[in-house]
Design a protein that fits this description.
Layout lengths: L7 H17 L9 H47 L5 H41 L3 H12 L1 E5 L6 E5 L7 E8 L7 H14 L7 E8 L4 H16 L3 E11 L1 H6 L4 E4 L4 E3 L4 E2 L5 H6 L24 H25 L5 H4 L4 E3 H6 L5 E2 L2 H10 L3 E4 L9 H5 L7 H12 L31 E2 L4
Amino acid sequence: LTKATVNAREAQRERRRRMFSKRYGGMFVSKLSDSQIAKLLKADAQFRKAGTQMQNEINKVSRQLRGIAAEQGSLMAKKNGEESGMRAMMKAMQLRKQKSSLVEKQAMLLEKYNDAEQNLISTLSAELEEEDRKSLGEMLKKAQITLQDGVEGLSVTEEIGAMKPHVFVMSFPGDVTASQVKGLREEVTAVIRSANQTRGDEVLLVLNTGGGTVTGYGLAAAQLIRIKEAGLNLTICVEQVAASGGYMMACCADRLIASPFAVLGSIGVVTQQPNVYERLNREGVEFLTVTAGKYKRTLTPFKKPTDEDFAKTKEDLEAIWTLFKDFVKNQRPTLDVGLVATGETWFGQDALERNLVDELKTTDDVLLEKLDQGAEIFTVKYSDPVASPIAQLLPSGSVDLSLRQLIGRWLLGDRFASLIDATDSAARPRYQEKMLIDRTAQETWFMDK
């Protein structure tokens, strides 16, 4: 799940290791050198090319045999009816001869395919240590080895229960803006692309957040829905708090667990801001706002609030609250949302009695439980790509991009000049034109600040 971001050679090396791990499992890849992996992937590619051709031939022969079987059935029907004679007998003999020839050809192709497959396994086995060689042998005894349309190479699909399920552990210590969603979306993508549903893989999220912006936690919850839509079981462990936007994430779990004194709930919406209109008025300062649209500005820090402003803001919050309740109800159908959607929070046992959570248990006990069940546990953590060394040496804000490109070509040549482009976004103007920023979403929260 680690992405190589240093240079092209390292990226190629990581790609080969991921490819090998995908085709043969991750239990051997860490013990093989780069040259061994390259050798085995080359042998695998040769097998896939030859194996695909042989399987296509085998499938072609099978189709021809099915056609002969259909013709023989037609002759049998005529024999039982009014038509029979020398012509039918000659046709039957011809079909039997064709069938015999095709069966012989099919057996020869199957033998060649099996020989190629066994040679590939022998090549792999020869590169392993004795202990791993024995593990490979035991695994192959329980496995069905297939060539999947020449794409996956030699894929080993074990019997149900023979492979250990993987538990991918992620963490979300959310802040008010849910800024951690940047890493969460990358981690979710990595897990979805790497997990094996038939192996029984699942995801465990350690959640700690009191909520925050509507948009931020709405996006975070949507990332968790991606896990469920991929067919993976999602367990969420709340260690200390999952309130408001945090509970919006928590309710997405197939199995929601909290520690005994964790705080859950706060299904409500609030917006708050200071108002300095009277102070500005006393100082003789008038704040002018020009809008187009009746409700473009309602409550703001600088204008005198009106009853209509309060009513419209209340209406907006009620609409968001309704969306919040509907989302929770869809994720936890057995929860009485009308009973708990009051903005209140409850500690572990009280939350359990109100069906806000399924179990009271620490994350440590859940992980030990998975381990005792035979699962392999992986921690998933996203890290930002590392900028190239040359990009770190060059100043980001004061040097024009064209000059930076010239320096890159002078130092590295045209082919590698793009290495210096991975710089801070501050080197480029964020907006070409000035525009008024609407901060309504940033002022609306799922939690009491």
